Amino acid sequence: MSMNTQGRPTRPGEADGAFHPKTFTGNSGLDMEEPLIFEFGSLETTGVDLDEDDGVEFELGGHRRQAEIGLPGLAEPEAMRHYVRLSRNNYAIDSGLYPLGSCTMKHNPRLNEKMARLPGFGDIHPLQPVSSVPGALELIDELAHWLMVSTHMSAVAMSPKAGAHGELCGMMAIKAAHTAAGRDPKIVLVPESAHGTNPATAALLGYKVVSIAAKDDGTVDLDALKATAEEHTGNIAGIMLTNPNTCGLFERDIKLIADLIHAADAYFYCDGANFNAIVGKARPGDLGVDAMHINLHKTFSTPHGGGGPGSGPVVLSERLAPFAPLPFIRKTQSGLELVETTSATTEGEQPFGRMTAFHGQMGMYVRALSYMMSHGSDGLKQASEDAVLNANYIRVGLQDLMSLPFGERPCMHEVLFDDSFLKDTGVTTLDFAKAMIDEGYHPMTMYFPLVVHGAMLIEPTESESRAALDLFIATMRDLVMSAKRGETDRFSGAPYLAPRRRLDETAAARKPVLKWTEPEAAEVSPAAAE
Ligand SMILES: *Cc1c(COP(=O)(O)O)cnc(C)c1O
């Protein structure tokens, strides 16, 4: 066993030339090689040993099963081990630093989990009579209050289930406001550095997306915006802008942008995914924002990744508040009321419809409010300050070796590098990211934002200690020097030590294999293989 530069033992493996036995089981130490459940569960096995039912009539009308449904049978401990082993192949914020830029992979405090499991929250059902869940309504209302105060906005639509869903909600409110005013503008402006969900949202609503160029410093080009606004005057529905933007930079002209957009009879949608950089420091409502989604699963620590439930409430300005979707909570003299239908609305309320079947992600609401209340407003502000400090600590620790596309100016909560430091090394951004996996790090966000060549976007969040950041910086420095020394093998074949080597990600995305087929059936005939 050898040591790396920080004195940590490296894992034995191909990379260091140490003896690496081919094991009989395919397992590697206590890392199990896990087959698909179909490959080891057998149709004949079942964890239940009840006798075959005798003479019991099926009561499913004509819907009687004709053949086996083909689900693998397993005993309970086997089924449990299968999923636990799979989960161990899953890198998570609970296993290590997760510097995925734009995603705010922060620690999920266990207190939040405990609160979400309280029977009064964990066991309620969306079809339960509203009168039996006043506490749940109060919690939603309290969370809405925290969101409106921290953003200084007039209303909040709680039900959207993710950031992208929130974008759709906000833009639908904007569309409804235009319709109510008898306007039908066709264009949404989106800066070049935007997250892909922004133009996708606009396109989904039938808008034409017009891109706005960035200046050399990575922020929106105000002159280009002015020119575009003039060119399409009267036909602009709004702008979708992220602040701080996806280059990790604060848009200093944001108020001028808001004024320009409002003067064009259009609305300002702010993508709030990067809110973690400014909580307690700047309020979107003061910046002229009309609608902004908040990713509770980013800024407010509710778990995310793996497609798990997110939550993307949308705060709305006074002008858009009347169009907030159903359902919403209304304060009355006799307490809180849940407004679920148009017939229950009152003068001035013109909901554009609804986004979800029920009321949103209750479990996430509990976690987010638990996070907010346990931090307090001062703690939330400090979390943002620490997130920005940590990103800048990494920036300063790496800027002499890696390349900053916009110069050595302070960043917000994430730091963006480009690939010019890899020029002539034969190592690409992708290779570099894969080598990080061998070192035990989830890669940073790669090739996004698109405005930067070979982008590497690093967001440590406030959860990481200084020691963790120092080790990360030292590891990154070791990798960069290795690339510069021409040790291309360390990169081009990486990852060497992951359960799977480098995958064909394009084929995986374009031709996903979503259905298991029995090996015999899948076997290619010799003729076809030739
Ligand atoms: C994460 C993110 C989104 C989308 O949020 P989801 O919750 O993943 O749908 C939108 N914009 C930006 C900038 C993001 O980082």
| Strand residue percentage | 5-15%
Q: Into how many domains do the coordinates divide?
A: 3
Distance between the termini: 44 Å
Second CATH tier, the architecture of the largest domain: 3-Layer(aba) Sandwich
> How many individual β-strands?
12
CATH class of the largest domain: Alpha Beta
CATH-defined fold name of the largest domain: Aspartate Aminotransferase, domain 2
> In sequence order, what are the helices and strands, one letter per element?
HHHHHEHEHEHEHEEEEEHEHEEHHHHH
Q: Which structural category do the helix and sheet elements fall into?
A: alpha/beta
Description:
By secondary structure, the chain is α/β, with parallel strands linked by helices. It has three domains: 20-50 and 69-90, no CATH class; 113-121 and 131-370, Type I PLP-dependent aspartate aminotransferase-like (Major domain) (Aspartate Aminotransferase, domain 2); 385-510, Aspartate Aminotransferase, domain 1 (Alpha-Beta Complex), CATH 3.90.1150. The protein is 33% helix and 9% strand. It is built from 16 helices and twelve strands. It has helices spanning 37-40, 76-88, 110-116, 119-122, 134-151, 163-180, 197-204, 222-231, 254-263, 362-398, 429-438, 466-484, 489-492, 505-510, 519-522, 526-529; strands spanning 155-157, 187-191, 208-212, 236-242, 267-271, 291-293, 314-316, 328-332, 335-339, 415-417, 445-446, 456-458. The chain has a seven-stranded mixed β-sheet, with helices on both faces. A three-stranded antiparallel β-sheet has the order 10-12-11, with helices on one face. Strand 2 (187-191), helix 7 and strand 3 form a beta-alpha-beta unit. Helix 3 (110-116) packs antiparallel against helix 10 (362-398), helix 5 packs parallel to helix 10 (362-398) and helix 10 packs across helix 12. The radius of gyration is 26 Å and the shape is globular. The chain starts with 36 loop residues before the first helix and ends with a helix. Bound molecules: pyridoxal-5'-phosphate. Pyridoxal-5'-phosphate (PLP) binds next to helix 6.
